[in-house]
Amino acid sequence: MDFHSILKYLLLFYFISSAASEFQTLTLRSLPTPSPLPLFPDSESLQSSPAAALTLDLHHLDSLSLNKTPTDLFNLRLHRDALRVHALTSRAAPGFSSSVISGLAQGSGEYFTRLGVGTPPRYLYMVLDTGSDVVWLQCSPCRKCYSQSDPIFNPYKSKSFAGIPCSSPLCRRLDSSGCSTRRHTCLYQVSYGDGSFTTGDFATETLTFRGNKIAKVALGCGHHNEGLFVGAAGLLGLGRGRLSFPSQTGIRFNRKFSYCLVDRSASSKPSSMVFGDAAISRLARFTPLIRNPKLDTFYYVELIGISVGGVRVRGVYPSLFKLDSAGNGGVIIDSGTSVTRLTRPAYTALRDAFRAGARHLKRGPEFSLFDTCYDLSGQSSVKVPTVVLHFRGADMPLPATNYLIPVDENGSFCFAFAGTISGLSIIGNIQQQGFRVVYDLAGSRIGFAPRGCT
Q1: Distance, CA of 130 to CA of 273 (rounded, Å)
Q2: Do 345 and 420 contact (CB within 8 A), yes or no?
Q3: With pLDDT > 70 as the criterion, what percentage of the chain qualifies?
Q4: Closest among 417, 391, 390, 392 to 403, alpha carbons compared
Q5: What are the Cα distances from residue 58, in Å, to 130, 239, 430, 452?
Q6: Residue 72 appears among annotated catalytic residues
Q7: b/e for 383-401, b at 16 or more Cβ within 10 A?
Q8: Are the C-beta atoms of residues 68 and 191 closer than 8 Å to each other?
Q9: pLDDT confidence of 193, banded at 50, 70, 90?
Q10: Among 54, 85, 108, 448, which lies 20 to 30 A Cα-Cα from 332?
């Protein structure tokens, strides 16, 4: 083969590779219809995980609302999302000084699992939330409780329930605590950005996950709880703070956990979460965790750029996402936020680049918080520009279904990013779908493994 032939093949390979990095195929699907929850045995018959590892099935909150249409559920999800983002940005705002403000607003933790509480264990649905620290559940007697799917937990029927003394270091770790003058035991309060809250006794209890018992987990036993928490009994906080479940169980699980959230419009299998060394995927690319000196709950990472159609977006600079010394700005990874929010200048540059790359698609009207939508009715698949998030040391090439999503049942699809006037940017769970997101707290890093749900 002569030089010109070799050159021709090299150029052909270059153009094919270049074209492959510029576009990918989006197979069009409708809004997901929630599937009924599997029958959860309230017993020890579940197969146990190894002692040093723990694997859980996760289910989306939509599974608790089977009487609503897919469009109703999607609109409710966006409503919860807006409330949650408000709560997160309020919590991260400079000078903000309320009692504990969790990431969970109006039940927008999005994903939940079933676990046993107490001895003998009573099985309950619990929301899992990387934007919160304190573990809590509703307890009787209830001065005021919201509606949940299971009977309310009665601590007096548990042999392992124990109040925490007011003098305990665990009590002092609470941002908002009190002391029962009669029992001299610790009281807690967790407030939320939408005005809902939970308050009651701070105690230790045994939690049971698939036959694995974890004793003396500090949790809130809430006797007064207000808010719409969509049927779950409470919350399993997965944040970075000292009272979160990963922090409390650090010795047992080596401060490692991961999850993979499935695309519910394409798969009927459940999402999953793994605690322990087995949580680390060999395929994961890691980026360092950054610590916010003013706030220890959230998982901050360094986003340094975004590519659309194989080209870095001009105007998306690392300085737009910088976490300053006062704790302002930055980028967090959050399991409970659905739609990724980017600080306004970065979002505008990304949106304009995507619009330019997708100019062959028929534009549609704006929808809710989405200002870039397309009318794809009557089509089964389309070509869309690729989108890659560039973190420090780790690229995250997004599947097309993670950024162009159905918003109704009439063929309308929208670009699933949004801008925010807040300095805080949030990588949401729509963009995380299909990746195993690895939280290696021992190594102070987060990883992303593509096709991690298999």
Answers
A1: 12
A2: no
A3: 85
A4: 417
A5: 14, 17, 15, 14
A6: no
A7: ebbbbbbbbeebebbbbbb
A8: no
A9: low
A10: 54
Predicted pLDDT at 87: 78
Q: Is the bond into 141 cis (omega within 30 degrees of 0)?
A: yes
Same domain, 231 and 358: no
Catalytic residue among 81, 133, 201, 334: 334
> Does residue 138 lie in a domain region?
yes
Whether 351 and 370 share a structural domain:
yes
Q: Which amino acid is at 293?
A: P
Host H or E run for residue 77:
helix 70-92
Q: What is the pLDDT of residues 259-309, one digit of tens each?
A: 999 886 666 677 899 999 999 999 999 999 999 988 889 999 999 999 999
Provide the residue range defining the domain that includes 406. Answer: 280-450
Contact 56, 113 (CB under 8 A): yes
3-state SS, 123-145, equals: EEEEEEECCCCCCEEEECCCCEC
Out of 62, 81, 129, 194, pick the active-site residue. 129
Q: 228 and 294: one domain?
A: no
CA end-to-end span of the chain: 43
- pLDDT per position as a tens digit, 379-413: 999 999 999 999 999 999 999 999 999 999 999 99
Which residues lie below 8 Å from residue 346, measured CB to CB, with a gap of 6+?
Answer: 306, 315, 316, 317, 320, 321, 419, 425
Task: Look at residue 403 in the predicted model and tell me its pLDDT.
Answer: 97
Which tokens is 436 given?
Answer: 């195993």
Where residue 158 falls (left for φ over 0; alpha for ψ -120 to 50; beta otherwise) is beta
- Each residue of 358-370: pLDDT tens digit? 999 999 999 999 9
Is the model's pLDDT at 195 over the cut of 70?
no
Q: Is 395 a catalytic residue?
A: no
Q: Is 17's pLDDT higher than 80?
A: no
Query: Residue 426 sits in a domain of what CATH number?
Result: 2.40.70.10
